[in-house]
Amino acid sequence: MKKLLVCLLACGLLSINANAKTTQEFSELFKNYDACFILYNLNEHKIVSEYNPGNYCNQRISPDSTFKIALSLMAFNQGIINQNTVFKWDGKKGVIPEHDQDQTPGTWLKYSVLWVSQKITPQLGQARIKHYLAGFDYGNQNFNGDLGKNNGITHAWLSSSLKISAIEQLDFLKAMLDNELPVSDEAVAHTKKNLYLGKLNNGADYFGKTGSGRHGRNERLDNPSKLRDGWFIGFIQNGNQQYIFVSNLTDKKVQASIDKSDGSLKPFGSQLLKPITTKLLNDYFTDQTV
């Protein structure tokens, strides 16, 4: 399926809905970035809107916090968590107020709480995570982490060794929604519920996860990159129709500033991308009814 999607996308053989943006409109929205946007109709098994200059949708970058979708599926499937699990905050304050409190599987995804992920991954273990990554056909499946740092179990997905393309994210989400991943239906149902974001302008329910990082060397290494990566991926329930959306961006040139308090690049890549993607989704569904 993956090879077929890659071919159809690259060769321009998939039909595009009349509501789709023109290349010029896409280019204006993403003028400062290398970017990808894909909207896929799951019922009709086709891409209905896309922006893929330079075949960027096939370029692998770190999944960053979008990896929490895969990690949630693993944790629910292994019984490490359930919907009533409470992750106890250790009292150490960070830079995001919503992170400085006890968390649940729902708030973990809602607020994208890194320390929760880093509690779950050691419980799963390196071997089991790699087994799941292979079963998910998840990007390059490299969970080693930073070279020479031996930190894969807590950092592999954070601008580090694990990489995935937008097309591979699309395949992963499609397999999840079709219940084709090697996890229980309950693990999928719980994860989907916790990804809920609200409604688009036309009333359609949408679900998703953002992710932000650096394009290349992360802040844990010498001479870190000053280019941002951003992700926003998810799915939409529009009446009896289901759609998957996958978007990412990377700075074309250095534009971000370093926040000296935490070493991050501000604003985050996902903060730039999410409003663009939301606009694209709202525009696409403007003439469609729930």
Automatic annotation (TrEMBL):
Active site, per annotation: 65 (acyl-ester intermediate)
Enzyme class at the top of the EC tree = hydrolase
* Biological-process GO terms, alphabetical: antibiotic catabolic process; response to antibiotic
- Superkingdom of origin organism: Bacteria
What does the UniProt keyword field contain?
Antibiotic resistance, Hydrolase, Signal
Per UniProt, residues of the Penicillin-binding protein transpeptidase domain are 49-259
E.C. designation(s): 3.5.2.6
Q: Name one GO molecular function term.
A: penicillin binding
- Catalytically driven reaction(s): a beta-lactam + H2O = a substituted beta-amino acid
Q: Which residues constitute the signal peptide according to the record? A: 1-20
Modified sites of kind N6-carboxylysine: 68
Among the Pfam families in the record, one is Transpeptidase
Kindly give the InterPro entries that the UniProt entry links to this protein: Beta-lactam/transpept-like, Beta-lactam_class-D_AS, PCN-bd_Tpept
Q: What does the similarity note say? A: Belongs to the class-D beta-lactamase family.
> What is the protein name stated in its UniProt record?
Beta-lactamase
Q: Which organism is it from?
A: Aquicella siphonis
Which lineage?
A: Bacteria, Pseudomonadati, Pseudomonadota, Gammaproteobacteria, Legionellales
